[in-house]
Amino acid sequence: MASGSKKTDNAAEIDRLALALAKEPGSKVFIPLAEEYGKAGRWEEAVVVLEDGLKTYPGFITAMVALGRAYEQVSQPVKAKAILEEAIKVSPDNLRAHRTLARLYATQGAKDAAIRSCNAILAVNSQDQEALALRTSLDHAVAREHVPA
C-alpha cells in the first residue's frame, strides 16, 4: 500500500517539476526532475532532461555526474565513462562520479582505474563500505593475475 502511495507521490512530483521546467526552460529544475525520473526507473527520460539541461549549463558538474549515472542505468557505459571522466577532471573529489566510474571500470576489466577511483573515495571516507568491498575484490583479482601458473 505504501509503495502505491510513493509512486503516486513520485508521479505528482514529476508532474510538478516538469511543469516548472516547461514554464522556465532555462532553470536548474531539470536536476530534481531527472532525479525523480531516476527514482521512478524512468532513466531514458532522465537522460533526455539532463542532456537538454547541459546544453544550457555546459560544465555543470552536478548535471554531468547525474547524466553519467543515468547513462550507466540505460546501458551506455562508453558515454557514462566519458562524461564522468570529464567531471572528475574539473572536480577530482567528486565521490559520486568516482563511485560510478569505479563500477564501470570494474565491469570493463579496467582494474587499475577502478582501484584509483576506489582510493579517491576512501581518501575522503575511509569507512565507505561499497568502495572498500570493491577495492578488496579488485586487489584479490590483481593478486591472482600475478601468481605464477
**Name of the CATH first level of the largest domain:** Mainly Alpha
Mean pLDDT: 91
Let me know the largest β-sheet: none
How much helicity do the residues have?
A: over 70%
Radius of gyration of CA atoms, rounded to a whole number:
18 Å
**H/E element sequence:** HHHHHHHH
Mass-distribution shape: elongated
Instruction: Count the DSSP helices.
Output: 8
The share of residues in extended strands comes to under 5%
Question: What ranges have pLDDT less than 50 throughout 5 or more consecutive residues?
Answer: none
The number of strands is: 0
CATH fourth-tier homologous superfamily of the largest domain: Tetratricopeptide repeat domain
CATH architecture of the largest domain: Alpha Horseshoe
Total discrete domains:
2
Instruction: Give the terminus-to-terminus CA distance.
Output: 56 Å
CATH topology of the largest domain: Serine Threonine Protein Phosphatase 5, Tetratricopeptide repeat
Structural class call reads mainly alpha
What is the strand and helix layout of this fold?
Blueprint lengths: L1 H22 L6 H10 L3 H14 L4 H13 L3 H14 L4 H13 L3 H14 L4 H17 L4
Helix pairs in contact: 1-2, 2-3, 2-4, 3-4, 4-5, 4-6, 5-6, 6-7, 6-8, 7-8
